[in-house]
Amino acid sequence: MTVQWVRLELDVDVFDADRFQGYVERCRESGISFTTMAELGDGPAERSALYELNKECSADIPGRGPFHTFDAYTRLRLEVDSYDPRGIVLARDGDAWIGMAATSDHRNAGFVFNEMTGVRAEYRGRGVSLAMKTLGIGFAALCGVGRIRTVHHPANATVIAMNRKLGYVDAEWDYP
Q1: Residues 133, 104 contacting (CB under 8 angstroms)
Q2: In this predicted model, what pLDDT tens digit does every residue of 60-72 receive, in sequence order?
Q3: What residue ranges in the chain does DSSP mark as E strands?
Q4: Quick one: residue 123, left, alpha or beta (phi over 0 = left, psi -120 to 50 = alpha)?
């Protein structure tokens, strides 16, 4: 049986950031801070921490299968032309990394791509994902594009609903 992936796209020009700023503020008021891989330095320690966070958060994705080894992750996600550390928004509680929203640069094709948004289980339900995605939408402007694309397994209903809440709409485009 072939999976019918849910393809979504956001027109950044119609995104209402003010509508979601409350999520960012509530998280900050509760002690959660936001940064990017670029701001942290994107060194070996940061890449290792990103890998561990991504691995943990990916475990809940329907149909995901085993996660990459660190070497494969580095080769497939970080040592590629589309990787830009400014596109990785991180949520932290003190020094603990609790969430990530990774967006890759595909400006040559006219968009950026939401690769992964995830929050450690004990921090879910607090608006952290919406806050990170709200902050991450600015990456499209850094890349000079007005569209953000993402794709989800159809059983990942919570994340699909979150993206639709942000204004993503169903779209047709090729996805492997």
Answers
A1: no
A2: 776 677 888 999 9
A3: 6-11, 32-36, 88-93, 96-106, 111-119, 147-152, 169-170
A4: alpha
Separation of alpha carbons 162 and 37, rounded Å: 23
For the beta sheet containing 88-93, the strands, ordered from the edge strand earlier in sequence to the opposite edge, are: 32-36, 88-93, 96-106, 111-119, 147-152, 6-11, 169-170
Q: Are strands 6-11 and 88-93 parallel, antiparallel or unpaired?
A: unpaired
Residue 103 has pLDDT above 70, yes or no: yes
CA distance 168 to 176: 20
CA distance 133 to 64: 21
d(CA 88, CA 117): 10
In this prediction the pTM is 0.93
C-alpha distances out from residue 7 to 19, 160, 168, Å: 23, 9, 9
